[in-house]
């Protein structure tokens, strides 16, 4: 309601200036809308393609925090019973931190949830233990130790995630690697 009244008072001031032959007075920045504190907004989280049987993992892009300024109404304009403005609105500048996502992040193919059976996870734990990354019971559970070991394995390869990628599963010998065959020889 107060925004509508403020828009009317701004329009009335410009109309009055034009009717009286005065040049319009600069009213400063656009303060017709109040800006609320901004939180991190999710980008459209769709994988690069929707292929049957392919599951995707996502690592968000880096986040940056900046100090931003907004113009807000400190005191709304006061109007008399006839609609005349008794006192104008008072505006003030407010600064606040705002966090932004830089870029969309990175998508990668991952092992699908349906494939993460206790037998598969136990094999994963054995493969990570053989490389000195997993220290725990081979229990077939995707617990914190297993997740940490997966991340330790993948991070040096440029994928800082505890979600098991298809590439890491292939490197660990957990899933088959497709080999191209030369069909030119008879």
How would you sum up this structure in a few lines?
With 186 residues, the chain is α+β, with helices and mostly antiparallel strands. The chain has helices spanning 2-19, 118-130, 144-154, 166-171, and strands spanning 55-59, 63-75, 78-79, 85-87, 90-101, 106-110. A hairpin with a 5-residue loop joins strand 3 and strand 4.
Structure report:
- The protein is α+β, with helices and mostly antiparallel strands and about 190 residues long.
- It folds into two domains: about 1-45 and about 60-100, no CATH class; about 110-170, no CATH class.
- Helix content is about 25%, strand content about 20%.
- The strands form three sheets. A two-stranded antiparallel ribbon has the order 1-6.
- A hairpin with a 5-residue loop joins strand 3 and strand 4 (about 85).
- It is elongated and about 85 Å long.
- It starts with a helix and ends in a 15-residue tail after the last helix.
Q: In terms of structural class, how would the helical and strand content be classed?
A: alpha+beta
- Main sheet? 2 strands, antiparallel
**Which word captures the global form?**
elongated
Helix content: 25-40%
Spans where pLDDT lies below 50 across 5 or more residues: 1-7, 13-44
Number of domains: 2
Output mean pLDDT: 76
Give the tally of β-strands: 6
- How large is the radius of gyration? 30 Å
Q: Main traits of this protein?
A:
elongated; disordered N terminus; two-stranded antiparallel sheet; 186 residues; 2 domains; 22% strand; 26% helix; 4 helices; two-stranded antiparallel ribbon; alpha+beta; 6 strands
How are the secondary structure elements laid out?
Blueprint: H1 2-19, E1 55-59, E2 63-75, E3 78-79, E4 85-87, E5 90-101, E6 106-110, H2 118-130, H3 144-154, H4 166-171
Antiparallel strand pairs: 1-6, 2-5, 3-4
